[in-house]
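Weekly modeling sync, notes
Attendees: S.R. (lead), two postdocs, one rotation student

Agenda item 3: backlog of single-chain predictions. S.R. asked that every request posted to the team notebook include the full sequence so nobody has to chase files. The rotation student volunteered to paste the first one in as an example of the format we agreed on. Action items at the bottom.

Example entry:
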Amino acid sequence: AQFLLEKGIAVISKESLLISSSAEVNLVIAGLALLYQSSNAIARTLMMHYLLKADKVESWDLNTHFKEEDFFKKFMKDKYPGWNPSKLNQLPLYELCETLVRLFNLNQPADPYLVFFLDAVHQFASQNTATIPDFLNWWENKKQKLSIVIPEGLNAVNIMTVHKSKGLEFPVVIFAFANWMDNKKGE
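Predicted structure, as returned to the notebook:
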């Protein structure tokens, strides 16, 4: 998949369509986890990793910003003045997620993973107690099942296992790493 993507060929795989495979969705989840438990070092690290990787941070002193109080007081306050946990925690769950998307400017350009994620948040909030810990527990149980829906006939390479493709007909099949013939030369 990586090779095809590097060559500019669109790729579809079940794993790539999971909402949880989106770094932006994971940033929102990390934000929720930090709002629920400000000492959550894993969520803080995920947030810092995303901000670094997305080049949204020009310079970074890990020793300074990794401390919880410095991370919130210095970095988040300077870069994202809308990050105010006491105000954000007062918002309803769906509105909170939308606010985090806007706060981190994740909606430019429109991201189908975030759209489907927000739909999942809305569905959860309409059927359950919409607290952050309840949603985070629900997310942990559902994140490997929730995926974006793609239209039929999309012009892309569909990556699947041999087992899943069994019985299906395709005009072209690429069978990666099929080198068993090389192994038989020595026999």
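Discussion: group reviewed the output briefly. The chain has a mean pLDDT of 78.
Action items: rotation student to repeat for the remaining queue; S.R. to check formatting next week.
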